[in-house]
Amino acid sequence: MSYLILKDLEKRYTKGGNLVVNKMNLSIRKGEFIVFLGPSGCGKTTTIRMISGLEEVSGGDVLIEGESILHKKPKDRGVSMIFQSYAIWPHMTVFENIAYPLKLQKLSKSEIKERVMAAAEATDITALLDRYPTQMSGGQRQRVAVARAIVVKPKIFLMDEPLSNLDAKLRVSMRTELKNIHNKEHATSIFVTHDQSEAMSLADRIVIMNKGVVEQVGTPMEVYHDSATKFVASFIGTPPTNFFEVSIEEMNNELFAVSKSFQYRIQQELRKALKPYIHKTVDMGIRPEFIDIFHEDQVKSEYLYDTVIDFVEPQGTHSVLIVNLEGKEAKIVTTKYMDIRPGTKVSLYIRDGKAMFFDRETTLRIK
Amino acid sequence: MSKLKLANSNKTGLPNTDIFKKKQIDLKRVFSKKAIPYLLLLPAFIYYAIFWLAPVFAGVAEVFTDVNGQFTLTGNFKLMMHSDLFDKAVMNTALFAAVSVMIQYFIALLLAVLLSRKFRGAKLFMFIAMIPMAITPTAVAILWKTGLIKEGWINSLLMFLHIIKEPIVFLNAEGLAAVFLIILIDTWTVTPSVMIILLAGLQGMQRELKEAAYTFGANKWRIFVDITLPILKPSIITSIILRLIAAIQVWAIAVMVLGFNKVPFLVERIAFYVDAVPGVATSEKLAFTFSFTTTVIVFMVTIIYLKFAKRNTKIGGSS
């Protein structure tokens, strides 16, 4: 059964203004770690603020355990929020910060103490309880914010870019820890970020948003290898997917993707789906690691184009090769020819079944 | 190994003249580098010494010498305490400082919270609220005086609104009523400046701090008392000190609106003895003694207040 359901959720800030969140539908199971991923301004933060009660809903509904929470005050919704700036109060000690939500609930002093200690232990900050936030590092403040969120025993944790104020190294260790806490507390979490590697490493399922619309909901592997829209294919992955404008043509009972400089034979499985597009233009996308620069005997692949390597960017584990394809840069990731010289003549081959095609109007994947 | 030996031989052997010379040069360089800031500050220091320190010392010296130039520790203070209206001046100053700061604070905080909500027309409202700040005390006094006279605009307005039937003669006010009249005018003048400091504090506050409290179940009043006020405390303390000092030094409005001797204040006394009865030796002494006393009071009030305020803020909210 779904734990949290968003039903046609909508948000506009002014009457008749733009839809910041447009008919969003989503259902989340208990214990899931969901990540909202998208560029800034895509509506991801607005969505969790609507769930938390900080933002009013313009249309649709939010249900937790089958019950609409829209009429409820934030504290009665069973959610707790972790903010980007941590939002821990500078005039209170760590103990007072964590205890404040419980004080508002008018719990007894002994119960407050017990629960604060438990939350502090879970986040490993028992030694800091008497300190003030100004005397602590960013990572420690983050832990206090997490402890304060845990202490109210919420049904759902809402995290609004909680790691973006930390330095790169701490961010990586903190995200592992957040996932640990999530597992230990048997929590259900929604995590907002614009950082795809953060999203991929944390999420059970990723919700990819763009301009207020959900582009795809899926596991990290699904959104990467089975992108539903052109936006997803271009947003997920570094370097990003290479796109070419091609027209679909039929020759000798086979389908070809034809551009000015190449004729690419399309895999058999896509025949049926692409048939309506004959003589029409579509976007063809190929991830950089699925392009070979020489024909490999053991690999099933299809010839694309002859070209020259312009630049080589060694990354240690792999190299990024940049070639010129129809006046545009195309990026190729290779682990085999990491020492290749710029200027080398190469023949590009696409691994079998790895070319993706997208409808130009709907931007949906054709498959 | 070889380096160690070399070092040893230097220590035990003849003094190394090269090193000695180098040290001398270094010393010179270090000295001149350290001296530069002092050299740069020297003109300002000389200016202060001539135009500030000297008069201050001369003034203090006046306080402790009698009319004949003889040293006296308490003579001038006794003279001051027995001077006309001294008791009243002290009482009025204390009353004025306490009441005006409280009233101005309350109004300023209210206005600041209101303006920080960014409602429609907030900018226009702020502009209007700031106008009194831009007017000099003299102009303020004239403005209010024209309002407070029998045929003034305040009486006209009150009568037009049928709140009063007969014009009130405000300027005949005496004693407490007069002090409150001055408090009223002063509040009108300085509340905007207090409000600005508080507003800056409010606007500098992260929105998420309040939102966090809200999501955990605090209502608006609790958020204000538990979160906003304590975080605002540093700017509150600063502005209260500034107000307190200014309030103890009140005089211009009182003299401009009501004239000398009507509502005596400590600094009003100074002005009175300098301006109204100049040339008399004792009045000069009295002016100096009043100045000295007021300065000491300002110092003491500031120090006591700061100690009190710091004890109540466990940590300076500065982050």
From TrEMBL, chain A:
GO cellular component: ATP-binding cassette (ABC) transporter complex, substrate-binding subunit-containing
SMART domains noted in UniProt: AAA
A molecular-function term among this protein's GO annotations: ABC-type transporter activity
Keyword Translocase (UniProt): yes
Protein keywords: ATP-binding, Cell membrane, Membrane, Nucleotide-binding, Sugar transport, Translocase, Transport
InterPro entries listed in its UniProt record: AAA+_ATPase (IPR003593), ABC_transporter-like_ATP-bd (IPR003439), ABC_transporter-like_CS (IPR017871), ABC_transpr_MalK-like (IPR015855), ABC_transpr_MalK/UgpC-like (IPR047641), Mo/tungstate-bd_C_term_dom (IPR008995), NA-bd_OB-fold (IPR012340), OB_MalK-like (IPR040582)
Source superkingdom: Bacteria
GO-annotated biological processes: carbohydrate transport
ABC transporter domain sequence ranges: 4-236
CDD domains assigned to the protein according to its UniProt record, in alphabetical order: ABC_MalK_N
PANTHER family given in the database record: MALTODEXTRIN IMPORT ATP-BINDING PROTEIN MSMX (PTHR43875), TREHALOSE IMPORT ATP-BINDING PROTEIN SUGC (PTHR43875:SF15)
Protein name: Multiple sugar transport system ATP-binding protein
Automatic annotation (TrEMBL), chain B:
GO biological process, one term: transmembrane transport
Keyword Transmembrane helix: yes
Keyword Transport: yes
InterPro entries to which the protein is assigned, alphabetical: ABC_transporter_permease, MetI-like, MetI-like_sf
UniProt subcellular location: Cell membrane
GO cellular component: plasma membrane
Domain ABC transmembrane type-1: 90-305
Domain of life of the native organism: Bacteria
Membrane spanning stretches: 38-58, 89-112, 124-144, 176-200, 286-306
Keywords recorded for this protein, A-Z: Cell membrane, Membrane, Sugar transport, Transmembrane, Transmembrane helix, Transport
Membrane topology, as annotated: Multi-pass membrane protein
SUPFAM superfamilies the UniProt entry points to: MetI-like (SSF161098)
A UniProt-annotated Pfam family: BPD_transp_1
Sequence similarity: Belongs to the binding-protein-dependent transport system permease family.
PANTHER family registered for this protein in UniProt: ABC TRANSPORTER PERMEASE PROTEIN (PTHR30193), INNER MEMBRANE ABC TRANSPORTER PERMEASE PROTEIN YCJO (PTHR30193:SF37)
UniProt-recorded name of the protein: Multiple sugar transport system permease protein
